[in-house]
C-alpha cells in the first residue's frame, strides 16, 4: 500500500499532558503581570494623584523639560505656569512630569 492509515490521537485530549503544556504560558503571564503590568499601574496611579493635587505655587517640571511655578489652575485639564517673571504659558495637566516643591498650604486666620 502506498497510503498509510492515519491514527487518531487518544480520546483523552484534556489529560495531564494538556496541563503540562499550558503551564509555561500561565507562568509567563504571571511573571509579566508582577514585573511589568502591576508596577506600571502603580506608577500611573501615583502620577494621576500627583497631577490632581497640583495647586498654585507648586514648582513643576513638564515632560518637555520646562521648569516653572503654577500661577493659576485654569480648569481640571489645564494649568497656567509661570516660566520666568512675566512669561506665563498654559500647560495640560497630563504633561506634568514631576513636582519639585510643594507650596505651603494657606493658613487659616480664624
TrEMBL record:
This protein's UniProt keywords: Cell membrane, Membrane, Protein transport, Translocation, Transmembrane, Transmembrane helix, Transport
Membrane spanning residue stretches: 18-37
Membrane in keyword set: yes
Keyword Protein biosynthesis: no
Any Pfam family matching the protein: YajC
Protein family membership: Belongs to the YajC family.
Function, as annotated: The SecYEG-SecDF-YajC-YidC holo-translocon (HTL) protein secretase/insertase is a supercomplex required for protein secretion, insertion of proteins into membranes, and assembly of membrane protein complexes. While the SecYEG complex is essential for assembly of a number of proteins and complexes, the SecDF-YajC-YidC subcomplex facilitates these functions.
Source lineage: Bacteria, Pseudomonadati, Pseudomonadota, Alphaproteobacteria, Hyphomicrobiales
Organism of provenance: Roseibium album
Name of the protein: Sec translocon accessory complex subunit YajC
InterPro entries, sorted: Preprotein_translocase_YajC (IPR003849)
